[in-house]
Design a protein that fits this description.
The chain is of the alpha+beta class and about 190 residues long. It contains 5 helices and 9 strands. A hairpin with a 6-residue loop joins strand 1 and strand 2. The termini are far apart.
Length: about 190
């Protein structure tokens, strides 16, 4: 029997919707049907293999892959034995458009129809990302003063590391970071 994986969730007290969630997973049951969430999804598959269908394309899935899905972007994992971590955040919790100048992930990790929605995570990068996730896990359990601000700071650090990885691996993503001067309407249309 497989042990239950820990799930840490923050709910928006104003509307009762998910604000932020961190969960470990040891199978694909959470993602084995079409997902279309109203929040951002970062799914890091540390071990396993299979395929992922996102929008209308299918991608190979292997250990060391981090997938980034925008709100309402459909995806499904076609795998059985995968192990990893998922991080979800609602735009009300952290708006990537408002903080584009700081984190540069819009058009790189999210909302880029020209690049695959994943990055490869090397062993060196995995240590860094795991450290940040440990800090997030510790803070999400700490309900004291300024919890939201600290979680947002760790989320920014995580997103910046992922954006750096993506720009190293994808030449079009690197070009998009330099071309952030696109009007907001064009960014949304793209």
């Amino acid at each position: 029997m497989v042990a239950e994986s820990p799930v840490f969730t923050l709910i928006n007290p104003q509307n009762g919707n998910l604000a932020f969630k961190l969960m470990a997973f040891n199978d694909a049951s959470s993602f084995d049907h079409v997902q279309r969430h109203n929040y951002y999804s970062l799914i890091w598959v540390k071990q396993g293999s299979g395929a992922v269908r996102a929008d209308v394309k299918e991608y190979d899935l292997s250990g060391g892959s981090l997938f980034a899905f925008s709100p309402y972007q459909p995806f499904i994992f076609l795998a059985q034995h995968i192990l990893g971590v998922a991080l979800f955040f609602h735009p009300d919790f952290f708006c990537i458009h408002k903080h584009q100048a700081e984190i540069a992930c819009n058009g790189v990790l999210f909302n880029n129809i020209y690049e695959p929605p994943f990055i490869g995570v090397s062993e060196d990068s995995s240590v860094t990302l795991d450290d940040v996730l440990t800090q997030i896990r510790n803070e999400i359990q700490n309900t004291t003063l300024a919890q939201h601000e600290i979680l947002v700071s760790y989320l920014k650090i995580f997103l910046i590391h992922c954006s750096r990885l993506k720009t190293e691996q994808a030449p079009l993503a690197r070009r998009d970071v330099g071309a952030v001067r696109e009007p907001f309407v064009l960014q949304n249309l793209k």
